[in-house]
Amino acid sequence: MNGMRFIVTYNCNFSCSSCRYKCGPYKKGVMDSNIFRNKALKLYEEGYKDYLIIEGGEPFLHIGTIYKYLKKIKNIDSKKYIITNGFWGKMDTYLYSLSDLKEMGLYGIIIEYDYFHSAFIDILTIKSAIEKALLNGLNISVRAAFLTRDISVKADIITFEYIKEIRKNYKNIGYIFEDANFKKQSLLIKPKSAIREKVIFYNDFKASKKSDAAICKLDS
């Protein structure tokens, strides 16, 4: 599986301690839509065709720019995802915004929720975001970060309880579990197929290690 990931902004309405890019409200700026298009087209031609992920920061803080991104790459035949913290879950206008994004080619939403995010948003808002995405026929995954592999610390136990609660209501959505340790960022559940991913950073941010996140489904 070959894909591309764009970190389009470091601006975020949350300041999670688990954030690998150290995003927050004080970080400003967003990737220019023409730069986004040119990079995406080049990577697509190089064979990174299976998926395209738009991540931040919080992309939905710049929804007008997200519209431009999707419009400019509408002819790229890749599964297109947006990673979000779901802050918009209880905002009715986003039901229609998601509909517009789907019309422009959005395939799925990846919503982040765990112990770290729960300091800024409640699980009811996350469920509302899931509902809005499902009503628009979008593919949904929930991404959570864990500090340990055996769920042996309080933060991980809390995250695990959140995941169980979400799974009670939504059996057929995907889950992505990641290691929250910045020095060994990796997936806790490995995908069945190998991932080859190219990451493009806004303003040439230098990550400590290549990202290897992927879409993973838990068995029911």
UniProtKB/TrEMBL annotation:
SUPFAM superfamilies: Radical SAM enzymes. The keyword Iron applies. The keyword Ribosomal protein does not apply. Pfam families: Fer4_12. GO terms for molecular function: catalytic activity; iron-sulfur cluster binding; metal ion binding. Keywords: Iron, Iron-sulfur, Metal-binding, S-adenosyl-L-methionine. It comes from the Bacteria. This is 4Fe-4S single cluster domain-containing protein.
